[in-house]
């Protein structure tokens, strides 16, 4: 089951097992069951601390990871956790054996304090790069709290179950048989939905900052680190630390690093930020800012933070097409991540809206999974790089339609088609399909700002060469600004510029 290089890496990890572990397997005569048995037996053969037992589990095929002598630790895998989920399996083995998870003690204390039965199930695809973070978070919770269980379910192995529940996006998390959350979710976000977070007064009582950074992506992290290195009081308030980079599968243009993945880069950013003792307030959404004696930032929960200077680095989000059916069928056929959700559309017909690099790359990836891909481009020609276009046009199951203005996405309980108008002839056309992937660029997260911050007609914050905005003491960096290009490395540079600009402002004022 395991390739030689993966097996060699696994052998090194298994040497870190602290206690004896039992893999309990529920298998039948089907091919997935046979592969499941082969996988667990191969893993067990690599360490004397791992044994295999037959069991009758809620799902067949599946297996659970348990401490020796315990009935059920609560960590289950229904399907074969290879691909992106192989790391989830390795971490489960280590953590169940007694090796402590790498999370803050405050998070561990919150998990252990949870009362009542919590049975989580996460539907994944093995090609989804966002799914492992959710699986690993819920596995940690299961290991630390006997009231919590978690089962990873490979949608490809349980197609009937996925169809019955009408799951068209991963990861999809269910708690006690009821839908709980969709998309990438951190362990802090999961806890925030189960236990109460910090009270607004607790945040408002914090001492004023010298520099307060709004946003925890590459720009915000860079800005905070540069500010903290000056020895001044620095804070980060972020809706989701890491921002959109968390949803990025492969990064190959981050200079000096040949290839990495978004979550790995974010983990490194977070570790670097923590090294400087920066006050990170995660899962907090900015609502309003006002310049008084100090700059006051109001959060959605009512808290008000004060700072002598402020850096806005709230990034950008996927742009919606804004047609009827888009919101109604989100996660019911309308998707934004082909890597995550593509496998759920195996053998079906889908459309990709957008002919830039992202749209064409999505169409190429999907063409290897689905029955047929229709690419809809608003302009008269595709905007993607020539090498991508050549690859796209070489595929037999792709149709490209230019001058197409999307009118609506149709369906009943899920998507069944898309309607567009030919911008040359003004004729309306309808394509029957089961999925629509939207890939039309980004929109800056600046809706919460008022007119005191000058922005372009696209909502981008206008900054000068120091990162200064039109409001004295307020700076901005990254994809939320009028920067010519949206790239991780450019965001980091602009974050450093904004921090140095803020420091210079503090010296002069």
Give a verbal description of the structure.
There is one protein chain. By secondary structure, the chain is of the alpha/beta class. It has 3 domains: 4-194, 3-Layer(aba) Sandwich (Glutaredoxin); 200-317 and 443-508, FAD/NAD(P)-binding domain, CATH 3.50.50; 334-438, FAD/NAD(P)-binding domain, CATH 3.50.50. It is built from 14 helices and 25 strands. The strands form 5 sheets. It has an 8-stranded mixed sheet, with helices on one face. Strands 9, 10, 11, 12, 13, 14 and 25 form a 7-stranded mixed sheet that branches. Strands 16-23-17-18-19 form a 5-stranded parallel sheet, with helices on one face. The N and C termini lie far apart (64 Å). The mean pLDDT is 95.
